[in-house]
Amino acid sequence: MRVAWTKKAEKQLEQIFNYIATDSALYAYRTVEKIIAHAEGIVPHPRKGRMVPEFMRDDIREVFQHPYRIIYLIKDHENIIEILSVIHGARLLPEELE
């Protein structure tokens, strides 16, 4: 399997970076690097993440890189893990991720 980022998730990463960079560019880089590394770490065991409670679908799961939720879709037939969203844990999810 391979990881693919949606445009939405890429934009969210950029927003996270920009927000943190107002205080520290170094910490912003480190935070985004940790998020990306954690997302890439899903590959060996994509079902290890928990089902997203808001959706309760077996193919939509999440892992955490505190304080962010990395929400992804497992596309077994395409051999892809699609990162749908990277959202702060205190925020509500939109009704539609895809």
Explain this structure:
This protein has 98 residues and is of the alpha+beta class. It has one domain: RelE-like (YaeB-like fold, 2-Layer Sandwich), CATH 3.30.2310. The protein is 32% helix and 30% strand. It has two helices and five strands. The chain has a five-stranded mixed sheet. Helix 1 runs antiparallel to helix 2. The longest helix has 16 residues. The mean pLDDT is 93.
Summary of the model, kept short:
It is built from two helices and five strands; from the N terminus they run E-H-H-E-E-E-E.
SSE diagram, text form:
Layout: E1 2-5, H1 7-21, H2 25-40, E2 50-51, E3 60-65, E4 68-75, E5 80-88
Parallel strand pairs: 1-5
Antiparallel strand pairs: 2-3, 3-4, 4-5
What is the CATH architecture annotation? 2-Layer Sandwich
| Count of helix runs | 2
CATH topology: YaeB-like fold
What does the main sheet amount to?
5 strands, mixed
Determine the strand fraction and express it as a percent band: 25-35%
Compute the number of strand runs: 5
Helix and strand pattern: EHHEEEE
Record the strand order, biggest sheet: 1-5-4-3-2
**Gross morphology:** globular
User: Looking at this structure, what is the CATH superfamily?
Assistant: RelE-like
Low-confidence stretches: none
Give the overall average pLDDT: 93
Question: Helicity level, as a percent range?
Answer: 25-40%
Structural class: alpha+beta
Rounded to the nearest angstrom, the radius of gyration is 13 Å
Broad CATH class: Alpha Beta
What is the total domain count? 1
N-end to C-end Cα span: 19 Å
